[in-house]
Every structure is written in structure tokens, then in C-alpha cells.
Amino acid sequence: METNNNNTVNVMPRIGDTAPAFTAKTTQGEINFPTDYKGKWKILFSHPADFTPVCTSEFMTFGSMAEDFEKLNTQLVGLSVDGLYSHIAWLRTIKEKIDWKGMKDMEIKFPLIEDITMNVAKLYGMIQPGESTTSAVRAVFFIDPQDKIRTIMYYPLALGRNFDEIKRVLIALQAADHFGVAMPADWRPGDEVIVPTAGSCGVAKERMQSSEDEMHCYDWFFCTKKLNKEDVEKALNL
What is the pLDDT of residues 149-173, one digit of tens each? Predict the structure, then answer.
């Protein structure tokens, strides 16, 4: 919870909440979030500032993975508290001048929000005074097609995000929803999945429909079953 100078209180969004709505100017025109992306997964993420090295490495990585996220029916939306002209100049510099880890001529096509007032950053709890009062931390919000927040990640200013983990989480969330299962630690497509115990997670039906041959139970509360990589890839259009 954060109190602004005008004494209004912002309650940081939580997992399971409906994503707070806002209208904002971006490098791709004005957007109404999350309404404009109804029916899609959304990854809303913040970065501290334009023309900074860690943020540049992250945007180039997001740009290089844009097609992967598109295949996963996911819209990327970035944010920092810089202005629109700064955003445009920075993204142009990335495209025209930066060659990093074999990534070059990188054109960022997803919207980058102008948030000079920090209204959106405060709405989503991206301003954390213990880290900085003038820059957004590296927050990542995973929002599902029903506009519910499903996962939240926070990274400090000095640490770039793990993009392999961001993609893994997105795939795991989509697969868990599609197959009505839960995912064990470090799950990746092709690994076994957890069959929820009766009455948990609202998916006891999946357990009842699984035969003893399909499941391996380590104890009454911990049962897994095989989920073929091909089935996950087909279901998620990977």
C-alpha cells in the first residue's frame, strides 16, 4: 500500500485481482488498457528509464522474442516514467546503433507507455520508494484473457530480468488452464504435471478422470501424470 502526497492511498494490485484500467499515450498511439487487448494474454512491464544500459538489453531481448509472445496470444506493453519523445528517440537508437549479442536492427513494435506523471506506475505499484522515488522498478504483470492478474514479478533497478523464466511462466500458466492441472517446480513442456488433490484448485474432476495407470502417487497429496510435450505444443500453438 502506498500513500501519495495528496493523501490518497493506492492499494497495489494482487494476484487474482482484475487488472486496473487506464488510458495512456504510447509509441503506438493511445491505448485503453486492458480493454484494447480483451481475449489476449497481456504482459505489462515497467523499466526505470530510457537510454540506460540494463533497460536497453531488456528491450532488445523482448524485441527478439516478440514473435514467440505473439504465437502465445500475448500482447507486450512496456512503461517507464519518461516522455513520448524520449521513448521514440531511444527506440530509434536501439534500432540504428545497438548491436548486442547478435541482436541488431531491432525494431520495437509493441507499445511503450509515456508515464511522466507516474499515474500508471503508481496504480500498479511500480514506484517503490525504498528503491527509487523517481523511477519504476522492473515489474512484470501477467494478465489473462479475462483481465485477471495471474503472476507478478519484481526486479530491482540494477538487475535485468530472466526472459527465459518470463516465457516459461507464461507457457505454464496457459498449460495449467488448458489441461486443468498444476505445475511442479521448474516445469517445462514435456515434464510431468501435478494432478490436484480432491477439492483443491477447483479441478478435482481432472483427478477423478485420471486412471491409476496414468498417475504416479508419491503419497495421497502428491500425484503426477505425464503430459506429452507435443500435446502442450498443439494446445498452445507453440
Answer: 999 999 999 999 999 999 999 999 9
CB proximity list for 56: less than 8 A, separation 6 or greater? 90, 94, 98, 100
- Report residue 196 as a C-alpha cell: 490436484
Alpha-carbon Rg of the chain, whole angstroms?
A: 20
55 in active site? yes
C-alpha–C-alpha distance, residues 98 and 90, integer Å? 11
Examine the pLDDT at 198 and tell me if it is beyond 80.
no
Q: Which backbone phi and psi does 43 adopt, to 5 degrees? A: -115, 110
Return the number of other C-beta atoms located less than 10 Å from residue 63's C-beta.
20
Find out whether 160 and 220 touch, Cβ atoms under 8 Å.
no
Q: The whole model's pTM is what?
A: 0.90
Q: What is the pLDDT of residues 15-59, one digit of tens each?
A: 999 999 999 999 999 999 999 999 999 999 999 999 999 999 999
CB 100 within 8 A of CB 62: no
- Grid coordinates representing 166? 518470463
CB atoms near residue 160 (< 10 Å): 15
- Of the residues 55, 201, 217, 223, which is catalytic? 55
Confidence (pLDDT) at 147:
98
| Of 117, 137, 124, the residue nearest 13 (C-alpha) | 124
Q: What is the pLDDT of residue 209?
A: 52
Cβ atoms of 24 and 31 within 8 Å: the answer is yes
